[in-house]
Design a protein that fits this description.
CATH topology of the largest domain: Rossmann fold
Strand content: 15-25%
Largest sheet: 9 strands, mixed
CATH architecture of the largest domain: 3-Layer(aba) Sandwich
Structural class: alpha/beta
Number of helices: 5
Helix content: 25-40%
Number of domains: 2
Number of strands: 12
Length: 269
């Protein structure tokens, strides 16, 4: 039979007492932290998210020019489900608002800010339509990155847009998606806009794999047709095309088709 040791029992009691005290202190600390957090949440609501002083009363819209959304602040606020006169600007999630803006096909970039005490300010950059898809009156247009947009909800362009053809109408994706078959044609088009302004493209046909067949006017006068590869040195090939057009005009050559399908040469037809 084990012998009772008063000293050992006393030590055990002290250890048990310390454990109970530590547990009580931990529970007290958790309670204090919880009450503090609850107090901060309540204070935050009273001071900010439920404070009538910060009720949304104004929606400011800034755009990069006379685009589709310019002057349509009320319409955009409704599209974003913002309730003027009801929402609290601190209860609104700015990141969520920006995400909804970027899901609008015609919007390329966006910023959202609070302006105390009662304003949400939105700045957007609208996409610039660069070409129509399939025909000049098509509902669908694309920007330089191939983003599909509705013509009726995109920036209005005062000149006739070039047309990209050579695919089935049912192949065009819904607005807000990139139309990959149009990308080589858009690279060609953007090269002329940036580096060869004397070349004005009218139609680009992408039906032939590996080739771009397009019609153009040179200095808004003579009408020509050209064929070139759909990838690689498009800028270089455009330089060759322009030189060939100038040379043909000087020599009085009336042929109007320039085939650049063969590397390093231009064939006139």
């Amino acid at each position: 039979m084990a012998e009772y040791n008063p000293k050992t029992a006393k030590t055990q009691k002290k250890n048990d007492s310390r454990k109970r005290n530590a547990l009580l202190l931990l529970l007290l600390l958790v309670a204090v932290i919880g009450l503090g957090w609850l107090g901060l949440v309540t204070a935050g609501r009273l001071l900010f998210t439920r404070n009538d002083h910060f009720r949304l009363r104004r929606f400011e819209l800034r755009t990069n020019g006379p685009g589709y959304w310019s002057g349509r602040g009320d319409q955009l606020a409704a599209a974003l489900d913002l309730k003027i006169g009801a929402d609290n600007i601190f209860a609104l999630n700015l990141g969520d608002i920006r995400g909804r803006l970027l899901r609008i096909p015609a919007v390329e970039s966006a910023e959202v800010n609070r302006i105390l005490p009662d304003t949400i300010a939105v700045s957007i950059v609208e996409r610039i339509p660069r070409a129509s898809l399939n025909n000049p009156r098509s509902e669908w247009v694309v920007d330089s990155h191939g983003m599909v947009m509705s013509r009726f909800e995109a920036m209005s362009i005062p000149v006739r847009l070039p047309v990209i053809t050579g695919f089935r109408a049912e192949d065009v994706p819904t607005p807000g998606a990139v139309f990959k078959p149009a990308l080589p044609a858009l690279e060609l088009l953007m090269n002329t806009i940036r580096s060869y302004p004397d070349i004005s493209i009218i139609y680009i046909n992408v039906a032939t794999p590996g080739k771009l067949e397009f019609s153009l006017r040179y200095r808004n006068q003579h009408l020509y047709r050209a064929i070139m590869p759909d990838r690689g040195r498009i800028g270089y090939l455009l330089g060759m095309l322009q030189s060939a057009i100038i040379s043909a005009q000087r020599s009085g050559d009336t042929r109007s088709t320039f085939d650049l399908s063969f590397d390093g040469s231009v064939i006139l037809r």
